[in-house]
Every structure is written in structure tokens, then in C-alpha cells.
């Protein structure tokens, strides 16, 4: 069946009137930026007083903009006048496009669109702000599914400068183009994505939290240490457990399960039993006063980092196989004034430092024939500048662990020490992020550049997943995943063909 809407005698005019159904946080945000883009906005909500509350709220934002001299009084008045009340759905009849921002339930959205089809002109577009439902499924009950499209904003809409434009399988190409242009006119980066579970941004965000939860579930270390490592070493705006507390487990866990099941139990998206258990206990995060952290007056109680142990300097032997890794550790040892051994084997008293990728300290020590009781692994994926991470084998003696911590922290740089883990903390999370982003590209959900920019804007990552892989080295990322897969047998860590092909060819992951 053709995707094209039958052509009219004249080309469609640009969007000038936009209707919004649902005036909660999302609806208000969309209304604000649409008015600022010069559109006349009609607001509809079933709850008594909701439209007046929305207009007052948005007007208050513009008033503050005037007070801070970010907005002229003339513009504020013009914007305010462009917000109209639609007391009934029938009052939306003249709108060029209507965006629904109602409850996230398929039947409710389908029913609304069927009602709107009886009211709107045949050229009017029906846009859904859904974050998780299939645009194709919403459109399937419509008489003209060609005009139904996903137009997914992020909260808070005025600050999150991204909108996903998601055509369903039957959405007309010209509708996609015009809605894309509208998103740009509203001041947002438009990320075109296919109608797949989680679309682009929520899909790409599956690795950050789920892998951190897996690390926590393996008792590698505590949640506060994981957060510190990913903020300091990884450059993320906030740690995964701070983010889960901010979003609320009632929201986050539901999204984890939804995308996992929509992808027919794809192991890369596997949720953790930890979140289900904590959800049942009511440990939702900030909104409940306790999540992974406890909150007092809205502020998290974060445990202090343990002090570095006192340790007597001892000779150090480096078993890092890569020249760059060996040089980094050697510079650290010399900077601390400790003795660096250069023989083919460590002396009987030497602290043995290794720098594996995707291996645990135990496996690396055994593979290199080193004494496990004196072996400590150091993560060099992100260098040694802002935080240093080390892990020990189950056999590592306390004196050698303490010596390694004192060495790594000799210049005041914070040190995180934890139990043995294939891939440390940072390596595991980063590799999974890159892998999921690569698979999004492989599936053609969006173009490589769009994937990276959307993730930077929508998730606040320091880099998009493909750029992140290139930054750390795609071959290193591939080695981490391959070693994780070999050690665990878990298909969660199987490398995307997109990543493997480009890494082995020496091409950037952004190569189309």
C-alpha cells in the first residue's frame, strides 16, 4: 500500500497552528517552544482548570525571562497571546498539527487519534509524544495512518534541545520532512529514527544502568564507588545510581523491562533483579526519600571514601603488555619514587602490576605466570588523571593491595579499589554503551552522526556511543567485549558486527 497522502490541488501551507492534548509537564514544554517559534497553540485537557494552570505556568517562565533580560516584554506578550484554550477536541479543528501528550497507554492514544480524525482536516498531522509505544501500532487504528508520526520530546522540553522524529511504517515521507522542519523551527536538534523499541535515545541508554546494576549484583563494589568511577574516570554528568534515583525506579525499571521484552529478551538489554526487589520495597529514589542513596532535605547522603592505607614502598614489576600501558605505569612508579624493576620476572618481594582489557586480575595473572598473591590490576582505559581504579585477585595479600593503593594515590589522586571483575567497572560500562550504539547503527535505526548527537543531547553523555568507541579505541573496546564473552559465556557481550568490522578494518565507528 502506498505511503503517500493523495496530493491536493495546492501544496500544504507551513504549520501555523498546533494543538496539544495533555497539559502536563511535557505538554506545557511543547506549548512553550511552539509559541516561541511563532505558532498559535491550542491547549486541550480534560481536567478542569488544567489549561489555565498551564498558561499561568508558561507565562510565569516568560515573565522571569523578561526580569532576567533574556526576553523583551513585547515578545513575552506576543507569546502569551498565542496560547489559546481548546475547551473541547472540536476546538482543535483548525490545527495543522496536533501533538498528544497524554497517558502512556496504547489504547488511550489510539482512541484519541480516532476521535481527532473525525474533527481535523485530512491534511492535518497527528503526532504522538510517546516515549516507548510503537508509532505504527498507534496509527494502525487510524483511517489515514500516513499522517501519524512520532514527535518525542524530552523533559524539560525547553532545555533538552532534542526531539526524535519517528515515522511509522506507513507515515508519508512529506509528513516526516515537514515535522522534521517544525522541530528545527522550534529550536531543537531533530533525530530521525525508525519505529523500533525505545526509538533512539532510550534504546541507546540501555547499557549505562543495566551494566552498572550487573556489576553491583556481582558484589564487585558498592553503588557509590561505581558512580564515582563513571563520573571521574568516564566523564559522565552523573553516575548510574544517582540517575536511577533521580528518574525513580518506578519509571526506570518499567522502561528496562519494556524494551527488554519488546526485543524478545535480547541479552544486551537484560534488566537486573535488584531493581525489581528495590521497587517492591518502595526504594524509588528521591521521590520516596530513599533509593540507592538516602535523601535528607532532598540531598543524597553519600558515604565518605575510605582513606588510603599506609604502606611501605616496595619494588614494582610491571606486566602490562601494551607499550603505552607499560609506559603509563612506569611513569607513575617513578613519580612516586618507588623502585621499578626491569627484569624478565618479578623479584620475590615485588608488587606486580598488570593492565588487562576485559580480563579479570586472576585470569591475567595466571596467563602471564605471575604470583596471584602479589598481583594487582590497574584500569588504564581512561588514563590515570582524575581517578585510578584497581582490582585484586582473591589471593592478593592485603599488604600488596595496600601498597598498590598507596602507590596509585601518592599524588592525591583518588583511588577506587574493588574485587576482581572481568573488565573493571569503566571498561565494562563503556564497552556496553559502545556496543549498543554500534548495534543501533547496524539496525539502521538512525545515521551514525545522528546517533552520537542525540545521545549527547538526550542522555548527557560526554560523547555519543560511536565517538566514545573511537575515543577509547574501537580495537580496545572489541577486545574488552570478546574477553568478557569468553569469560562469562553471556551473549550480552557479543560484539555488534558494526563494531567488529570497523575495528578490524581500522575505520572510525562513524563510517556509514
Task: Set down the secondary structure blueprint.
Blueprint: E1 17-21, H1 25-36, E2 40-44, H2 50-67, H3 73-81, E3 83-85, E4 97-100, H4 106-117, E5 125-128, H5 135-139, E6 148-153, E7 162-167, H6 173-185, E8 189-192, H7 201-204, H8 206-217, H9 223-232, H10 240-247, H11 249-262, H12 273-280, E9 294-296, E10 299-301, E11 316-318, H13 323-336, E12 351-354, H14 361-368, E13 375-378, E14 388-392, H15 398-408, E15 415-418, H16 426-442, H17 448-459, H18 465-472, H19 474-488, H20 497-505
Parallel strand pairs: 1-2, 1-4, 2-3, 4-5, 5-6, 7-8, 11-12, 12-13, 14-15
Antiparallel strand pairs: 6-7, 9-10, 13-14
Helix pairs in contact: 1-2, 2-3, 8-10, 8-16, 16-18, 16-19
Mean pLDDT: 95
- Category by helix and strand content: alpha/beta
Radius of gyration equals 27 Å
Helical fraction: 40-55%
Profile the largest sheet. Answer: 8 strands, mixed
- The spatial strand order of the largest sheet comes to 3-2-1-4-5-6-7-8
Overall geometry comes to elongated
Number of strands: 15
Unreliable stretches covering 5 or more consecutive residues: 1-8
Amino acid at each position: 500500500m502506498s505511503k503517500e497522502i493523495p496530493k491536493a490541488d495546492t501544496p500544504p501551507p507551513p504549520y501555523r497552528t498546533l494543538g496539544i492534548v495533555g497539559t502536563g509537564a511535557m505538554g506545557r514544554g511543547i506549548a512553550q517552544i511552539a509559541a516561541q517559534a511563532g505558532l498559535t497553540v491550542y491547549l486541550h485537557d480534560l481536567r478542569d482548570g488544567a489549561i489555565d494552570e498551564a498558561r499561568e505556568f508558561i507565562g510565569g517562565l516568560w515573565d522571569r525571562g523578561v526580569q532576567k533580560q533574556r526576553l523583551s516584554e513585547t515578545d513575552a506578550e506576543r507569546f502569551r497571546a498565542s496560547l489559546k484554550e481548546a475547551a473541547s477536541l472540536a476546538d482543535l479543528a483548525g490545527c495543522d498539527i496536533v501533538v498528544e501528550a497524554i497517558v502512556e497507554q496504547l489504547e488511550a492514544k489510539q482512541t484519541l487519534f480516532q476521535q481527532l480524525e473525525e474533527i481535523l482536516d485530512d491534511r492535518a498531522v497527528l503526532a504522538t509524544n510517546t516515549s516507548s509505544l510503537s508509532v505504527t501500532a498507534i496509527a494502525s487504528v487510524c483511517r489515514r495512518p500516513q499522517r501519524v508520526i512520532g514527535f518525542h520530546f524530552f523533559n524539560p522540553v525547553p532545555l533538552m534541545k532534542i526531539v526524535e522524529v519517528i515515522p511509522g511504517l506507513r507515515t508519508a515521507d512529506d509528513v516526516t520532512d515537514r515535522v522534521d522542519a517544525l522541530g528545527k523551527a522550534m529550536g531543537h536538534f531533530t533525530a530521525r529514527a525508525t519505529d523500533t523499541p525505545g526509538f533512539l535515545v532510550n534504546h541507546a541508554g540501555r547499557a549505562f544502568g543495566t551494566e552498572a546494576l550487573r556489576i553491583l549484583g556481582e558484589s564487585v563494589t558498592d553503588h557509590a564507588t561505581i558512580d564515582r568511577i563513571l563520573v571521574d574516570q568516564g566523564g559522565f554528568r552523573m553516575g548510574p545510581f544517582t540517575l536511577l534515583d533521580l528518574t525513580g525506579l518506578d519509571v526506570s525499571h518499567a522502561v528496562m523491562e519494556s524494551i527488554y521484552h519488546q526485543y524478545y529478551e535480547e541479552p544486551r538489554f537484560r534488566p537486573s533483579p535488584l531493581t525489581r526487589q528495590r521497587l517492591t520495597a518502595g526504594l524509588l529514589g528521591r521521590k520516596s526519600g530513599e533509593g540507592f542513596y538516602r535523601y535528607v532535605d532532598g540531598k543524597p547522603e553519600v558515604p565518605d571514601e575510605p582513606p588510603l592505607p599506609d604502606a611501605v614502598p616496595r619494588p614494582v614489576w610491571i606486566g602490562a603488555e601494551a607499550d603505552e600501558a607499560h609506559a603509563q605505569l612506569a611513569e607513575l612508579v617513578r613519580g612516586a619514587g618507588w623502585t621499578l624493576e626491569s627484569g624478565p620476572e618479578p623479584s620475590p618481594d615485588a608488587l606486580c602490576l598488570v593492565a588487562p582489557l576485559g580480563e579479570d586480575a586472576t585470569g591475567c595473572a595466571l596467563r602471564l605466570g605471575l604470583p596471584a598473591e602479589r598481583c594487582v590490576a590497574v584500569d588504564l582505559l581512561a588514563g590515570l588523571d582524575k581517578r585510578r581504579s584497581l582490582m585484586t585477585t582473591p589471593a592478593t595479600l592485603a599488604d600488596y593491595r595496600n601498597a598498590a593503593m598507596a602507590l596509585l594515590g601518592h599524588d592525591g589522586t583518588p583511588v577506587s579499589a574493588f574485587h576482581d571483575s572481568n573488565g573493571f567497572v569503566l571498561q565494562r560500562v563503556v564497552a556496553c554503551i559502545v556496543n549498543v550504539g554500534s548495534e543501533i547503527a547496524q539496525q539502521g535505526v538512525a545515521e551514525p552522526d545522528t546517533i552520537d548527537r542525540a545521545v549527547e543531547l538526550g542522555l548527557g553523555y560526554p560523547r555519543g556511543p560511536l565517538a566514545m568507541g573511537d575515543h577509547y579505541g574501537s580495537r580496545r573496546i572489541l577486545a574488552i567485549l570478546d574477553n568478557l564473552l569468553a569469560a562469562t559465556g553471556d551473549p550480552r557481550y557479543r560484539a555488534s558486527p558494526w563494531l567488529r568490522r570497523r575495528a578490524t578494518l581500522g575505520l572510525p565507528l562513524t563510517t556509514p
